[in-house]
Amino acid sequence: KNQVEQSPQSLIILEGKNCTLQCNYTVSPFSNLRWYKQDTGRGPVSLTIMTFSENTKSNGRYTATLDADTKQSSLHITASQLSDSASYICVVTDRGDYKLSFGAGTTVTVRA
Amino acid sequence: EPEVTQTPSHQVTQMGQEVILRCVPISNHLYFYWYRQILGQKVEFLVSFYNNEISEKSEIFDDQFSVERPDGSNFTLKIRSTKLEDSAMYFCASSEDGVSYNEQFFGPGTRLTVL
Q: How far is A90 from chain B (nearest CA, A)?
């Protein structure tokens, strides 16, 4: 069964600090991995997408990494801002049926 | 920038009642999806829709659920007889085509509360 596990479940950081979120997956065959940001009460918005051959992708202060051999990904947030407070969801696409498998998300709270 | 819209933003209904959740996908997109997220849980796939028919559905999408594209713009999810456990956020999404690399754009969601 395809699974996506994220850690930590939640974290609190001070404004300006960095943090790293983790994602492990068992989805096979693998097509791509996305990190989404979901603000409270809103739909997920894509931050990055990586395919099998890509091991890092940046979008502003967000940098995602992918190790397809160990089936692990991370999302690094640099110089956090209050607006970064949200849930960050790791989503992996199955190359066979194109279905998305969602992680439970990591809730990030940035405090001033 | 084009976006997926959903109405209503919040729907409260009595158990056993029918509800219809509405979505307007991005205009040039061909694939449409419904997902749900029970409070505090993962987003779960319900159904995908292409060329006026269901292309995939999950175990959750039983006979109580149906989807329709009644005209050229709206995409609806109907729950015939709501149960308490149907209370969740329901997200509509659309993509240009069905290939795995294409991003699915999500709407803001409809919060369904079944009393």
A: 11
